Amino acid sequence: MRAFAYTPADSPEAAVRLAAEPQARYIAGGTDLLNLMKDGVQQHDRLIDINNLPLREITVSEDRVRLGALARMSDVAGHPGVRRRLPLLSQALLAGASPQVRNMASIGGNLLQRTRCWYFRDSTMPCNKREPGSGCSALEGLNRWHAVLGGSDRCIAVHPSDLAVALTALDATVTTLSAQGPRSIPVREFYLSPGDTPDRETVLRPGELITGLDVPATDRSAESRYLKVRDRATFEFAVVSVAAVVAVRHGVVRQASLAFGGVAPRPWRSPEAEQALIGRPLHAATVAAAGRALVRGAIPREHNGFKIPLVQRALADVLDGFGGRR
Amino acid sequence: MSAGVVGKAIARVDGRAKVTGAARYAADAEVRGVAHGVLVMSTVARGRIVALDTRAAQAAPGVVDVYTHLTMPRLTVPAPTTGYFKRFVPMQDENIQHAGQPVAIVVARTLEEAQQAAVLVIVRYESQTPQVVLADGLGDAYVPAPGSDGTNDYVRGDTGAGLAAAGVIVDATYTTPLQHHNPLEPSVTVAAWSGDRLTVHESTQGISNTQNALMQALGVPRENVRVITPFVGGGFGAKGPVWPHTLLTAAVARLAGTPVKLVLTRAHTYTSHGHRAETHQTLRIGAARDGRLTAIEHVVTQPVSRSDELVFNSSEPTRMLYACPHVRSTQRAVRLDLPTASFVRSPEAATSHALESTLDELSHALQLDPVELRLRNWSAVNQETGAPHGSNFLRECYERGAAEFGWARRDPRPGSMRDRDGLIGWGMATAAHTAGGRPGAGAAVTISVEGTALIRSGTQDLGTGTYTVMQQIGAQVLGLPLHAVRFDLGDTNFPPAFASAASATVPGVGSGVVRAATTARGRVVALAVADPRSPLYGVEPARISTADGYLHVTGQPSRRVSYRSVLRRHGQPIEVTSDPAPAALGYSTGAVFVEVHVDPAIGRIRVRRVVGVFDPGRVLNRQTARSQAIGGAIWAIGFTLMEHTLIDPHLGRVVTPNLSGYLVPVNADVPDIEVGFIDRPDPSSPALGARGFGETPMTGVTAAIGNAVHHAIGKRIRDLPITQDKVIAALS
Amino acid sequence: MSEEETPTKVGSTRRTVLKAGATTTLAAGTPLPALLGEAPASAAAAATATSPVEVSLTVNGVARPCTVEPRVTLLDALRERLGLTGTKKGCDRGECGACTVLVDGRRIKSCLTLAVMQQGKEITTVEGLARGDRLHPVQAAFVREDGLQCGFCTPGQIMSAVALIGEGHTRSDDEIREWMSGNLCRCSCYPNIVAAVREAAKEMS
After folding, report:
1. In terms of domains, do B701 and B574 share one?
2. Distance from the B230 Cα atom to the nearest Cα atom in chain C, whole angstroms
3. What is the ipTM of this complex?
4. pLDDT of residue C50
5. Which of A249, B561, B691, C189 has the fewest CB atoms within 10 Å, i.e. the most exposed one?
6. Residue C67's CB: how many other CB atoms inside 10 A?
7. B674 is catalytic
8. Number of domains in chain C
């Protein structure tokens, strides 16, 4: 790890001012950032410690949950109000990382964690995300964990966050602060597709600080489920994951909000799959149609073609939990 | 001998040190002024270095120096008999034989400074396209010359005739992936020179090997090299051989004029200390209609490096285990641009997996219960040599294991057993591994004038319980209470011992302790019966028993004298040293039964239950033996369901050199595991009836899991690991 | 790099790199920027930022001042600066759990945080659990149930277990398994670890 300067910030505004320095970076939990720096994937001249900023609140109100960016994964996951109003959020958080890391990692940092693509994580291998123009080693390499949806011929790395998948299904909003002032960004617009610039992962401007999340909690009739499929029981990133918020009334799907992890470079939404469900009874044929809609246009690579049937099966399994299929 | 010391479930004697953080592993050694070394590894898999630039690294803060093949002293390649298996020492010339080969070492004052300076070393290579895919090289496979396990083309009888006589023939191809040991403690060398004397704190399974390899590599006398290893943070074979980083660290410590500590990064361990080679295995098994085997043909093809021919999957179970007149077992090698392979916990696990899985296929073809199939082919003798086993209670293992598991309730039809959430599968297999047969160990016993004993041997405790069981053996043979005996290890100043490997510690070190303690006891008895003041004066020594710190006339426990008073009168300690003596090769077996649950929706497999009943001869310590069996079963879960090292086919480099890419089981993957022992002494054992056992319990469980998956889903997945994508493909 | 050499051009796709033939070159341990023509990080520039700072860590109830660069992890500060080697480094990437310690009573992985970030916090390591000769109930249970073999993961397992019992995740064996899964044990003592946690929790309740 290259040497760097360390500066604690005492207010969000001060943090943003410090971040104007090129190669400065915020550190909250540090659970991903320090690994990236140890591996030489990222190098920073200054770390701005934002842990003293007053951004840790968890507020559950009538129609929404407000999370400070520095709230820890474990605090949010275990919060009684969150578990009651947004169990999906709690489930997705508890599906991620380990108890120790959940005690450390912040909600804001979780959204910004970077792909587990091994070609990205080894600073001596070609990778367009880490070093634009150096080539993508995964396209013709070992790509079992890589994207089948939404990738490009420059990058097929997947986003690793479980939380981001849940927040996408829940249609949450990210709040930020930058030199230009505060703003709100829907999670669904927060992440960028890789296209020709896989190094650009989010719409955040340089130095822009995530201050929190607003998660709507309006529809009390909807049920939610999070399913994470992986190669060991726990403490592993998703091979595929599904977050679903579904309201079924009189056997008919009234509302469906779906998001998928492990299949795309960003938390993946499928309006087509949702449309295949809404207004229809939750029968096997409906579920199958939603699955087909989900994977339309999917591009399998040498080792990851299994994700196409697997994500459909995972979706079916999740929908099964809402009743009506069997 | 006093009863009850051996065989009990005694808590490990080093437990307190380990739970308080007081146990000092190699990287914890306090060495004044120690500097930190970090390796720079090659990023190409085949080629040569054409330019090196170390200027930026050397100018970086805190750097003591940077060493490359241009500046390193010439080191002798230690002989394979030292356990140095690689046939070259890196950083001696510009050639690159595999990715992740050391090309430079940076030494700096602090770890952080060394790590950063290592990044600043610039190396330019001329590279060739590497070949790292076994499947691409099968056409080039050849049978290597006989190696340490003997011939690589073993033939018994005439398999053509045996197959012709078969009523049923099963053909199968199994593949197992490249795997890594991943002990939690990465390998460590802390090397400190004092003049021409070298002290090394090393995380090794074999301090004598390390001493010998260093002696040869550096050209210094053996007595000038001391290796100290009181604790090892797991080995599993990774630390059995001697590897380059040890030699290189010792060499640069001398050049740098300062002690150097080198701890391999987790990533560096993947190319620094061998691995379990990938295998491609074809099996053809013929049997009569009643299940008796008529022929086995087993061909194992595995990669070897460009510079050695080491083959560690020797198909021992195929050759030795079952009664079968016609057997051919062939090991083939394919040269690839990979690091030298080595042994990994239970080297026979890979071949056992294929054999025991194919036997399950045979049981289906015959419609014969898999336990019954194995009982019908049980052999009282080692089928390879024809020699009888010292003892063999494998049939009892099958019977007890089946009863404890409830095997009789199994519906043999695949897919027939279900619960609310999915499919249930029950599978079984035979566990079998050779144990010992290695050069053995010496031990020194000192009985103090206080009547307590200190026993020392230059062996190691990898967590297997060496400290504990050797103390038990010593106490048992001497007739002292456990607390009056101490066992010390991990120092080349002690009598030499073979590496802690090959399930050889109990027979090797155990017998060394038995020999030394028996002699020492005899000396004490001789003193007691020769002393006119002793109540035992004049008694025939053979009539003396020892127990609980006393010598007494057999059958007359009240006519006794304490060790303490005998030694006090003697006025000086008694010291006895035994020399290493080879212990015969043992064969420890067992029967294992597994229940899996398969979620057919997403292909998820969970092991729900494991029952293993084993015959390791006499059980020295039920608690540590049970822990070994549990560990083996969990290794099998990893082996069968998740572990594989991935190597990029184009770059020739490991892409999973960490514990998030290379998955090992976590707590939540593991169910309760029931372990039983037959616990009857092996009369041929020189270690109180105990055989080596550590490697047996991983075998069998791998195939039992695979067989259970087949029973659950009705499809056979012959390519490990059995991940859920394969289950889904099989179910689709 | 020597003057006459052109820095390696890594092609626009990996294929071109790999198929370029016998003269393909890659640097060892060097991030791609250096290969693409940027100078390796200047040692002089690094030196200015390195400036070690005085920190005071409160470990096992004792204030322990030390001087560390900002880049020093809590784990390396404990082991290499303060001589508290009970806490182990198994992976240095948060993937094994051997470095687990408590910070203000919560379990964390000490390899994933900087020492400078932990000033003013109460840090507890495995050395701080026993009271004199009396083992902490979790330590005693690990010995009794043989929840260890090589012992290298044990300090981390024990710190995790102490925290887990405080968190109340001991309602079933399955819950213990899930909440102990951030700590790998390669010797594979998991069932014994579960038993030790269960028994210690009973004793402590």
Report:
1. no
2. 11
3. 0.97
4. 54
5. A249
6. 11
7. no
8. 3
